[in-house]
Specification:
The structure holds two protein chains of two kinds. By secondary structure, chain A is α+β, with helices and mostly antiparallel strands. Chain A has 14 helices and twelve strands. By secondary structure, chain B is of the alpha+beta class. The radius of gyration of chain B is 29 Å and the shape is elongated. The chains are: A alpha+beta, B alpha+beta.
Chain lengths: 381, 389
């Protein structure tokens, strides 16, 4: 492209304007990429869960427990290869400002079913299993409270009142950050010991041998308990997460609409800058045409100039969206499992930048290309 | 001497496209600003309005929500006998012991995985008197000993079988809808109310309640009532001012929505300001001879500065008004999210207040002034002789 220096010097002519336009494109694409990342991360969360795990809840309402006796009956359902259970334990630590959800788990079976997701070092696992008041705490929570393995921590129960003291016996690492690094997993037996009369499993988790049979398993279980005092609602772990995500409300629509507004706003700004550039260059274009530049060359010169602005802005903006959350360890108050800009988002951002070049450059380029030389030359001094 | 504003208006008319683009850019920022804050406002006001200032909510000690609370029937009677409880016309204490459960109920258009947790509150007839603002808009309240329920008005269009006389099935029983009620936009409008004794049997088992709400005899006597309740040896309870209890529930999500609104719109506004800067610089450079003439005529540089600032502010003002108009139709649109304190769905309406519109317009003018400042200063400092050429 031998006219590249010409494009560059055009860009340099109003340096401030070029810089400001690039920056507004960058800001807008930064915002767009960030908003879209929130949506994609929520989608990832809503697909969380292994295909071979199922969740059994009380069909009446999720806060109602299920009888302990179901454990044995669930284990005998065809295709079920493992059963564990857990219970929600509302708890506060210190001033109670930091929200975390301690779970009472049936320790051995739970860690077995989740062994590929929560990776606990063997010595820590053994220490935890040996001690009834032991607890496994996620690395994020350890860091937040400044706890260490071996510490005793006292949690105030909100559902099960009183002070509960635990000894941190282990932590875990995650293969998939979506499972969250702020878990607080302790022995169901410890809860049972103190609250015998009130406690039974909050939900069961099943492991099945064939994910394709999930529908059959769910139906078998729900049919079996339909007319009991505690009917069940069984689904895959994924459908459970997806249901949970619907509780946020229509975030996709909200952020999508804002994203559209942002993109449209920069389109106006970029297009305006290009129009202003072109208006000021009428005379030059006339000269270029007189010395033999074709309409088509003139057209592409303008489009390329617009593209350089849009692309530079896009690279800066999307780059910032990728780097900034990593540098600041942003996780949206723990709501999102990490903040990873997906390739899809980068592609959409690039597509927007292309569209931006085309739309913002087209009118001025067209005007320049179609400009009647004789008339325009009159303005040359 | 001031440069008349008509000069700016005429200049702006000379460059209609450029001006319109700049104003529209600002309009979009203002529209997003107003819409997002309307969302935050709507959510906060639904919960803030739920509680009454002179009502006291009693829960078990340490319980952080009604869901995790429990109060025995005998204790509820003890609370009702406290001298701090207001009496109604017939001398009965204005007290409402209530059961509280969150039920999963199928929503209109929802698939089987969608969770819609609805608060099912077991109340007595007194509840309608203890809570102000509750208005039965159609039907009449549930009868004693019947499987009958009343629905908050926000539930009606969102769930199936919600018409009067229709039946909703939960907890293994069919419940007939006998009335719809409004509650001044509060979160009670997202609840199902029925007779506490019916719900006790069908759901929790036993005869206990989750909370007791009563009206204070002396509206300013909350602290005293709280002392008496928490100090009573027979009870293990905490007392909360009802209004504060619900306002606290909105705090976290409300603050987050507000933070999000401000963050997104401030980033957007920087882009819009850059757009305004570009436009104003271009406008000034194409008007160099005019400005020189103005200065020659004896207008002070200060007047030129003010004139261009005003021009930029007016463009932004138009943008602000357009932005408010774009956002306005969203007022009153009902949306829903989850109240994380109870894991239940709460429906609320976007709420655009005159103050919010004013803030939006002010925000636009600030963008205009900031964006116009440097170009305007440049215009005012223009060397006259050079410019006149």
């Amino acid at each position: 492209m031998k006219y590249f220096p010409l494009v560059l010097s055009n860009l340099r002519r109003h340096r401030l304007r070029t810089v400001l336009t690039i920056l507004s494109v960058a800001l807008a694409l930064f915002l767009f990429a960030s908003l879209r990342t929130v949506v994609t991360q929520l989608e990832i969360s809503s697909q969380l869960g292994a295909a071979n795990r199922m969740v059994v809840q009380n069909a009446t309402a999720f806060i109602f427990p299920l009888p302990q006796s179901y454990a044995a009956r669930l284990a005998s359902v065809p295709h079920v290869t493992g059963v564990t259970w857990a219970n929600w334990f509302g708890g506060k630590y210190g001033d109670g400002k930091k929200f975390f959800g301690p779970f009472a788990i049936d320790a051995e079976s739970y860690l077995d079913i989740y062994k590929n997701d929560f990776i606990v070092p063997p010595d820590q696992k053994e220490a935890f299993l040996r001690e009834r008041t032991g607890v496994i705490v996620g690395p994020g929570l350890l860091k937040y409270f400044g706890w260490k393995i071996g510490d005793n921590v006292t949690i105030q129960g909100t559902i099960f009142p009183g002070d509960w003291t635990f000894t941190i016996r282990g932590t875990y690492s995650l293969k998939d950050p979506a499972y969250g690094d702020e878990q607080f997993l302790f022995h169901y037996d410890y809860l049972y010991e103190r609250e015998k009369d009130k406690i039974s499993p909050g939900w069961f988790i099943l492991r099945i041998d064939d994910p394709a049979q999930a529908g059959v398993v769910a139906k078998t279980i729900d049919d079996q308990f339909r007319n009991s005092p505690a009917p069940t609602k069984t689904g895959t772990e994924q459908s459970f997460s997806a249901g949970f995500m619907t509780m946020f409300g229509n975030i996709q629509l909200l952020l999508g609409t804002i994203g559209m507004a942002v993109v449209f706003a920069i389109l106006l700004i970029a297009a305006n800058a290009m129009l202003m550039n072109q208006r000021e260059r009428t005379a030059e274009v006339a000269v270029l045409k007189t010395v033999g530049f074709t309409d088509r060359t003139i057209f592409s010169l303008v489009i390329i100039e617009a593209a350089i602005i849009a692309m530079t802005g896009a690279v800066l903006g999307i780059g910032l969206a990728i780097i900034l959350p990593k540098a600041t360890n942003f996780n949206a108050f723990g709501f999102l499992p990490g903040f990873h800009v997906t390739n899809g988002t980068i592609m959409v951002g690039a597509a927007i930048a292309l569209l931006l070049s085309a739309v913002s450059g087209f009118t001025p380029a067209y005007q320049a290309a179609r400009m009647p030389v004789v008339k325009a030359l009159r303005r040359v001094e | 001497m001031k440069i008349p504003l008509i000069y700016n208006v005429r200049s702006v008319m000379q460059r209609p496209i450029s001006t319109a683009f700049t104003a529209l850019g600002i309009a979009l920022v203002v529209a997003v600003f107003v819409a997002m804050l309307a969302l935050a406002n709507g959510f906060a006001s639904a919960l803030t309005k739920t509680g009454g200032d002179d009502n006291v909510l009693v829960m078990r000690k340490g319980a952080d929500s009604e869901m995790s609370s429990g109060i025995a029937k005998a204790d509820a009677s003890i609370i009702a006998s406290f001298p701090h409880v207001a009496l109604d016309g017939s001398g009965k204490p204005m007290v409402s012991p209530e059961t509280y459960v969150v039920m999963n109920i199928p929503r209109v258009g929802g698939d089987s995985t969608a969770i819609a947790n609805v608060v099912v509150r077991g109340v007595s007839q007194q509840a309608f008197a203890v809570r102000k603002n509750i208005n039965i808009v159609s039907g009449k309240t549930f009868g004693s000993g019947q499987s009958e329920i009343c629905l908050g008005s926000k539930l009606v269009p969102r769930y199936r079988n919600t018409g009067i006389g229709e039946q909703i099935r939960f907890a293994g029983r069919d419940w007939t809808v006998v009335c719809h009620f409004t509650a001044a936009g509060s979160s009670f409008e997202s609840e199902i109310w029925g007779e506490a004794e019916q719900f006790q049997g069908a759901m929790r088992g036993g005869s206990g309640f989750q909370s007791v709400t009563f009206r204070l005899k002396d509206a300013a006597g909350f602290e005293e009532a709280k002392r008496a309740l928490t100090g009573d040896q027979r009870l293990q309870v905490d007392a909360h001012k009802e209004s504060k209890y619900y306002a606290d529930q909105s705090k976290f999500l409300g603050a987050m929505l507000r933070f999000l609104a401000i963050m997104i719109t401030s980033i957007m506004s920087v882009g819009a300001i850059f757009g305004a800067v570009n436009t104003m610089y271009a406008s000034i450079s194409s008007r160099t001879p005019e400005i020189a003439v103005l200065l020659t005529l004896g207008f002070k540089p200060r007047n030129v500065l003010l004139s261009f600032l005003a021009e930029s502010a007016v463009i932004a003002l138009i943008g602000g008004v357009v932005g408010c108009l774009i956002a306005l139709p969203i007022n009153g649109v009902v949306t829903a999210t989850t109240n994380w304190a109870s894991f239940s769905e709460i429906a609320f309406a976007f709420r655009i207040t005159p103050l919010l519109l004013l803030q939006g317009i002010l925000f636009a003018v600030v963008m205009g002034v900031v964006g116009g400042f440097f170009p305007a200063r440049k215009a005012s400092k223009m060397p006259v002789v050079q410019a006149l050429r």
